[in-house]
Design goal:
The chain is of the alpha/beta class and about 160 residues long. The protein is about 30% helix and about 20% strand.
Length: about 160
């Protein structure tokens, strides 16, 4: 029998576990890891590494800078990550550069707002095409935080909790 996945939410640069998405996941999916990631990129990654140590399979949900973190984590630990769900991920930033020649094969779902004025869709699209062999990019009529659409996504299916 397959082991149930560990699910984790990784918030964005200026958010926290108590932001709208963090509260949504904490309330709706109480077994999901929803923690704070303060500090520099490497401090945040060290915290993520400690939280997920010894856990697999993993389903990681990353928002903005947290999407960047989830992608870097998946590059470092591809065999442990079963799925990525990325929300307006900042894939165009420098921490992903060392992995530019990698191709990840887990399923990846990306939601990005057409009116995102923080993370440019045109910068994310080519990185996603190159990095993820199996990805679905959903461009939605929304802003960077996905304020209008986030709660409407089929989170049970995305997180593998549907019966």
């Amino acid at each position: 029998m397959a082991k149930d996945p560990t699910r984790a939410f990784i918030h964005g640069l200026e958010s926290s576990s108590r932001g709208n998405k963090g509260r949504f996941f904490s309330e709706r999916f109480p077994d999901m890891i929803v923690e704070d990631f303060p500090g520099s990129f490497e401090q945040r990654m060290d915290r993520l590494e400690r939280l997920l140590e010894g856990r697999a399979p993993l389903i990681l949900v990353g928002s903005s800078y947290g999407g960047l973190m989830a992608a870097v984590y998946a590059c470092r630990h591809e065999t442990r990550v079963a799925r990525l769900v990325l929300l307006a991920p900042a894939l165009h930033l420098e921490p992903l550069e060392p992995y530019r020649d990698r191709t990840l094969h887990m399923p990846v779902t990306i939601f990005h707002g057409r009116s995102d004025d923080v993370v440019p869709l045109d910068a994310v699209r080519p990185v996603a095409l190159r990095l993820f062999a199996d990805h679905r990019l959903h461009v939605v009529e929304d802003d960077h935080p996905l304020s209008a659409t986030f709660a409407t996504f089929d989170w049970d299916a995305l997180l593998g909790t549907s019966p």
